Please model this.
Amino acid sequence: MKLYRLAAIPGQGIANPIGTFWSAVMMLEHLGEARAASRLMRAIERATGDPALHTTDLSGTARTRDVTDGVCRLVKIDNE
Model:
């Protein structure tokens, strides 16, 4: 596992955005938006289960943008 100094991450596209999405789930729950929180959580679970969406901290090659786009795509699919 590679360890990165936080100062070395910005602008490189290597940060894992899943924690940010998970924070959004908790915020949605707090605001009483349970359905939206559930949809986002399902997208997070599917994304973390897909090795193509693993960033370097998970021994993958996905970039921050790849994971973000993947989670957004999964939310959209769940809304259809």
The radius of gyration is 13 Å. The mean pLDDT is 89.
